[in-house]
Amino acid sequence: MGDTHEIRLPDGRSMAYSDLGAGPAVLACHGTPGTRLEGQAAAGLRVLTPDRPGFGRSSPQPGRTLADWPADAAVLLDALGLDRVGVIGGSGGGPYAIATGVALGDRVTAVALLAPGIPVDAPVHGSVVPRDRAELRERGELFARLLRDDPGGFNRVTGHDWDPDTLASLTEAFRQGADAYVEDHSINDSDWAALLPQLKRPARVWHGAEDDNIPVEAVRWMVERMPDAELTVLPDTGHDVFAAWPDAFGWLAGGLS
């Protein structure tokens, strides 16, 4: 499907990913739910977007944790012969981008975050995504069914008129069912705040002032705990900060040149 490649991981799992553009490499951590189909071209950059375990065409990894992801990312970078990368993560991909920046150290030039997920320790939480695992399961299974059988119904339930490309990525995210969706949200809402002061790479965050999914107050709290981070608050903007992605890619490109 589209620009899809695959590698085999040391434990036998497969990882699917997209590989777009040419130039210095950026590893993109997709949202929740999301897939490699979120991958987008960026001027002068090579953007790699892997499916996390259980999403799209990547094998599940039952019981996975946030700490497991950087090792998978490193296998991909090794397979492609990449010594240095910028890392970018949007929404549910934010914690994975942070974990990668911590675990891979100097191999990561900088970390860009757009409306990133927050740990359970954050002082406030949004009201859009349920935090109870059973409710998450119910929501995920509803999304999977609607995306498969009634995309218009999915639009109505979520209150968005999703464009065809986004719908394709969301549908692909539930290719294997709702398990990865539940796991990802549970991981996002776990106790990973200790990673924040360990992120020694430069970080920059773009976040909407009107985000009711991930409150900006919680993101300010996160940024204060990162040693070298800057927050850009986008006025009159909610959780969809798509317009900031070119700025984020441009910032990462500056550190890769």
In short:
By secondary structure, this protein is α/β, with parallel strands linked by helices. The protein has helices at 69-79, 94-103, 133-149, 151-158, 164-173, 179-188, 216-224, 245-256, and strands spanning 5-8, 14-21, 25-29, 46-50, 85-90, 108-114, 203-208, 229-234. The protein has eight helices and eight strands.
Verbal overview:
This protein is α/β, with parallel strands linked by helices and 257 residues long. It is 34% helix and 18% strand. The chain has an eight-stranded mixed sheet, with helices on both faces. Helix 3 packs across helix 4 and helix 3 packs across helix 6. The chain is globular. The mean pLDDT is 96.
Largest sheet: 8 strands, mixed
The overall average pLDDT, rounded, is 96
Q: Measure the end-to-end span.
A: 32 Å
According to DSSP, the number of beta strands is: 8
**What global shape is seen?**
globular
Strand order within the widest sheet? Answer: 1-2-4-3-5-6-7-8
Count every helix, treating DSSP H or I runs of 4 or more residues as helices: 8
**Rg, nearest Å:** 17 Å
Q: What structural category do the secondary elements indicate?
A: alpha/beta
Percent range of helical residues: 25-40%
State the low-pLDDT regions, or none: none
**Beta-strand residue fraction:** 15-25%
Give the ordered list of helices and strands: EEEEHEHEHHHHEHEH
Main attributes?
257 residues; alpha/beta; 8-stranded mixed beta sheet; 8 strands
Draw up the topology in text.
Blueprint: E1 5-8, E2 14-21, E3 25-29, E4 46-50, H1 69-79, E5 85-90, H2 94-103, E6 108-114, H3 133-149, H4 151-158, H5 164-173, H6 179-188, E7 203-208, H7 216-224, E8 229-234, H8 245-256
